[in-house]
């Protein structure tokens, strides 16, 4: 053993389970040869504690920007930035050799759901977007795109604007810095008719956990020209198992662009709009959860209702006029309802939320909504709680009451929006907290933990979640004695026998790591008894 090797100590690294410092260093040495030393960064405890945590445009990749447990709970051992599909495949093979888990991200801006950080501490973050960030193809005639993981909404929009494709629109979520591929893979949502992002994808290229590369749909037929035109191809349709999963690393994704759009409204509460403009302290001296009367006053002050529908009509003017007549005459029967058009509202001295939403509804990416994160403190953090509901007033009200009760109990103002989908509502609850205050973190975490069980008891489940709750949510999707989780585990063990790809994602643990204490249990039993222990 050389002196250099002897001096390698476990404590110097953020080691994954079953890997000692020596073999971790050997793995990194081999992986460095694949990507080049400038594209591999080892995270050390010292490196982890800079004064600044980073921010939206300077995102930490080794930990969650909005950590709700400790800053180093979901901590990566290294960050690797591959430059090609071949790099990815080579890294995956080495990960198998050394049992080093990989956590792929595209842009890593999964804020509210764990950011860029891995579920299993010591995993290596595979930054798929850092170098693989090209728009590979735009098909004007069919309105499709083929993208690498690093293409953000901003960059896709810019590309279309600057390369003669202005007639093609995109659907952006509220923040434009995310990845078109990453958001679709986590089944994120936007606000135009193409807002259901995963269903608008068409064709994938995937590196499997053994390093093999496949193309889905028509992509498995060599020389085909329909990869981005027909979603299914031939035989079983596997694309779904690569979303919110740990079954493969997506290296290319096809996506449908919008030649001629329709309408997808959101229904937002007063405070989310108020918070876009200013912090709570500017509206109220109260340190408590705001009362109904106080929220009424804020609504009056900023000129909105308690619930506000933001939507757009698309298409030729005569059709829009006709559609508007139908909508107007229906919605105006709601007592107290009123409406405004962005064009009729003064933009000076300050743009209104209406103008901001107008951009989003036109597919112009932006970051206005970062504003509401600071509702109760500067550099505020978000925990997303996102249960699915039928599109009925009764369900929306029941969910609103359910959340308000817990938010009141834990001292949070309700901030939320209902995003209308094809056949359901995504109820997006935005719990803003102060990550620098351990008590705020604890309350935030416990509040959502209880709400997951509250929701399950009423028959509601979340469409997506923060890493801290992945096991809990898997445990409430438990029909027929957890048969879904067992199905996922069967797939996991077949595809990833060494358990190297994103262990724990969506509550799916590989055999090697299952039941060894890495699952996160509820911090204590839920107060009125959890409906659904596994
Ligand atoms: P990434 O972080 O790159 O990916 C997300 C996850 O997908 C990863 O953790 C990983 O599990 C998986 N993944 C990514 N790439 C790959 C790959 N190549 N192979 C395999 N798996 C992969 N979200 C919405 O959907 N709609 C909104 O309107 C919205 N508004 C928001 C507003 C605010 C103020 C905030 C703070 C957040 C909001 N979010 C919203 C949540 C989040 O910011 C976005 O969903 C964001 O797009 C996710 O980050 P990303 O696109 O960089 O994805
Ligand atoms: C939003 C936020 C989300 C999401 C979908 C939409 C929009 C908030 C925090 O996660 O999943 C206004």
TrEMBL record:
Protein name: FAD-binding PCMH-type domain-containing protein
All copies of domain FAD-binding PCMH-type, residue ranges: 72-260
Family matches, as Pfam families: FAD-oxidase_C, FAD_binding_4
GO cellular component: mitochondrion
Cofactor(s) for this UniProt protein: FAD
Keywords per UniProt: FAD, Flavoprotein, Oxidoreductase
InterPro entries for the chain: Cytok_DH_C_sf, FAD-bd_oxidored_4_C, FAD-bd_PCMH, FAD-bd_PCMH-like_sf, FAD-bd_PCMH_sub1, FAD-bd_PCMH_sub2, FAD-linked_Oxase-like_C, Oxid_FAD_bind_N
Gene Ontology terms: biological process: lactate catabolic process
Organism encoding this protein: Venustampulla echinocandica
Gene Ontology MF terms in the entry: D-lactate dehydrogenase (cytochrome) activity; D-lactate dehydrogenase (NAD+) activity; FAD binding
